[in-house]
Amino acid sequence: MDLNIHLGQKAKVGARLTLLAAAVALASCGGGGGASDAVGNPKPPAPRPEAGGGTAVKVDSLRVLEIGIYDAAGNPLSNVGASGAVLKVKITTERGQAVKEALVNFSSSADDLVFGNTSGAVLTDANGEAQLFFKPVSTEVSGAYTLFVAAMYDGSEGSFEANRSIKISVSPTNVSLTELAVGDAVLPSGGQTSISLKTQDIATNTPLNGVTVNFSSDCGQVTPSSYNSANQGDVLVSYKAVNADGTLCAGTVNINALTNAGSSSQNRTTSLVVEAPKVTSMLYPEGQAATIGIEGSGSSSQALVKFVVYSNNTPIAGKEVTFSLEKSPLGLSIGESGRTTWSVKTDENGEAPITIYPGSTPGPVEIRATVVDSPEIFALSKDISVASSRASQEGLSLALTANNIEGWNYDGTQSTLTMRVADKFGNAVPDGTVVNFTSEGGQIASSCATVKVEGISQCAVVFESQDFRPLDGRVTILAVVEGEKAYVDNNKNNMFDAGDMITSNIGDTFRDDNENGVYDAGELIYPLRSGAAGTCSSGLSVHRQPNMPNTCSEELDAPLRSQLVMLLAGSRPHIEVLEASRKYYEVKIWSIGPTDSAGNYILPMPGGTTVEGSIVKGSDSSECTLAFTSGESTIPSVVGTGFIAENAGRVPDLGTTHGFTMRDCTAIDALAITVTTPKGIKVSTLYALP
After folding, report:
1. Per-residue pLDDT band at 296 (split at 50, 70, 90)
2. Secondary structure (DSSP) of 593-606
3. Is 186 exposed, middle or buried (0-12, 13-18, 19+ CB in 10 A)?
4. What are the residues whose beta carbons fall under 8 Å from the beta carbon of 112, sequence distance 6 or more?
5. How confident is the model at residue 377 (pLDDT cuts 50, 70, 90)?
6. Does the pLDDT value for residue 47 go beyond 70?
7. Cα–Cα distance between 85 and 201 in angstroms, integer?
8. How many Cβ atoms from other residues are within 10 Å of residue 51's Cβ?
9. For residues 212 and 258, what is the distance between their CA atoms, to the nearest angstrom?
10. How far apart are CA 247 and CA 631, in angstroms?
11. Which pick of 26, 292, 339, 597 has the fewest CB atoms within 10 Å?
């Protein structure tokens, strides 16, 4: 019976004793003499090993005669380091004869030691000797270990085993980093080179493999940044003179190698020189369009734009760039107020920023940026302008979709108010110019900010009917925007200064709810007060531009204002006949609800109301016909509201007249007048023909 037993690299002593017991059991069954197969047939005898001299050796026993550890040169060792050692044994018979081709398994008492082949076993040579290299798994391994040897031999005399062990001491190894070198001591901008070194046992100078070395540099990148030594302790990595963010290195670059292997860390540094990058281009990036309000406009007072300097496609830091004005309106500055040239150095992103300060005149702006040490490389800005100034007193226009709404009997009837704002040049003001609104009754959005629609500066708010409703149905609305008064620019410098003359001096403003043209206690005063006490201009429209007396100054700033009246018309008509005959009928129509102080109806029917006339025939034979000959058949949404102060202090009568011409009518015929509002309120009134 055959018994093939294989001991792995990590087999322990107990396993070997079991193997020996199995061999004894086989011997008691006749296994020590001849051998037979599984069915009892004789097996041929195993070949007889020969000693070194060729004389046949009878192997009838086995022992481990010698065991020891040695360095690579064959010198005995008492202590093992990270470079490892050779475990060597000699296998003989009990009589001392060398045994050839005995299988010797090597193992250790812990996984901290590894052997030099995958099986952990070798065959003895003609001298009965077998050896195998082993080493600690890292330089940090230390302490006492036991190495085990298990020898086996199958021959004509039988199967035999022998075991032996040896205790060893392993010490941590200090590692040295040597021969640190760069492939090229001088690199072009963005260039690449190799970095190499060796790892050795600091005590024996023996090369060490598997040592982790970490690299760093004060500019650029080392790839890989961590490397395990191999071959004969060799380490080889690559250095590139470009940072991870794409910026370029220049000048002296220090490269550091560090290992923490062994009982202490080791550090080495070398350096190389990277040539300064060469500028190849400059760009003015897209998306930097800027519109600046002129000096003193109250809008954006400056703009910041950037140019970018490149070496090929990589931004360059530290390059000096000069700026100059190619074209600009009067008084424009760059860098700081009053300057027309400026210089900066590019930052880590290759960017050269420049601040633009407007002057007193609008117009296009073009800035030239030039690289100082490469003047042939430059770029021009685009899409920059000093566009507009502040709102002008003469540049306000307030319009609405309806000022005669069906709002006396209904909440939520709307009208949209649009304020268009221009500067003294008749141009759009900067986007975001704020217009504030207040209302005597109903409700209105508090403000809007201008935007350009097809280049025209405007903004809109919504008014809705609700309580409070004034008795006369006339709701005063005031719109205010901060700006500047109208003036004559006598010295033609496009700015207000000494010698210029204000043509329409306005001061503080208020909402003239009772429309009498003067401020009365209790009326709303716009919060921004000048504190001035000077005389204001005469001849101002007290309707459109209410102004508080003795609040003016010679300063240009002012709250610009525009005022109008919204009518809250009733939904049912009050009709009075002005003229009546069989040929012509004329009536006047008011909306029922709002009245003057005497109780008279004063407002028209709401905008969009239709007025229709028809004949009610007294007989089938009647030939009476009717034509609408005067007045509006549809009441306008926007009507003239008048102004109480301009109407001798009386509330204007805004009733509408309508005339109907009739032919071939008789006394038995009648006139029907039908009034229908936008809300669908329909009232018909029948009138007899005299």
Report:
1. low
2. S-B-TTS-B---PP
3. exposed
4. 136, 137, 141, 143, 145, 170
5. very high
6. no
7. 13
8. 15
9. 9
10. 80
11. 597
